[in-house]
Amino acid sequence: xxxxxxxxxxxxxxxxxxxxxxxxxxxxxxxxxxxxxxxxxxxxxxxxxxxxxxxxxxxxxxxxxxxxxxxxxxxxxxxxxxxxxxxxxxxxxxxxxxxxxxxxxxxx
Amino acid sequence: xxxxxxxxxxxxxxxxxxxxxxxxxxxxxxxxxxxxxxxxxxxxxxxxxxxxxxxxxxxxxxxxxxxxxxxxxxxxxxxxxxxxxxxxxxxxxxxxxxxxxxxxxxxxxxxxxx
Lengths: 108, 114
Description:
The complex is a heterodimer of chains A (108) and B (114).
Chain A: E1 9-13, E2 18-23, E3 32-38, E4 45-50, E5 53-56, E6 61-64, E7 70-75, E8 84-91, E9 102-107
Parallel strand pairs in A: 1-9
Antiparallel strand pairs in A: 2-7, 3-4, 3-8, 5-6, 6-7, 8-9
Chain B: E1 4-7, E2 10-13, E3 18-25, E4 31-37, E5 44-50, E6 53-57, E7 64-70, E8 73-79, E9 87-94, E10 104-105, E11 109-113
């Protein structure tokens, strides 16, 4: 299971674009990169998943460079409701293992 | 509502009590999971069930006993718990074990052991 490293916390203001980078230097060939979001006292929610290059959905974009040793979750124009913990997960195993995540705080 | 329902939402129990947490999903998923989340800590995987068979037991103490009677229901039976077992217990399901992009979590049961 590839180890991931993310910033513990980030601050932003409403309307800004937020980029959260995750390092995964020992990512394997078959590994996908998956991001989840968790609000306080709720279960995590799937945001986006990718393998290489760029993936975009209605919530976020995921940028993956050619070497795949890192990835960046991009949240366009954040609002107060985007305050949450964001988890980066890498691997192709039967169990979902969460790290510490990045605690994003959006201020008015 | 995510499609995974957990009851109760809150539970306070004494160390000598026996209680059960319930999880229900009607998403047609074949894998179900229990996670524990203590304050300011990452989620810890406890148990994994695939097609009603336990495929993972992550060194969880025997005072936690899971039960999966069918693919839609998952229980966590609790007995003689300790105060350090107080946490948010989350249930999740997925189409198959390891389907990372397709995990659906419930809202959790906030357990307090007194």
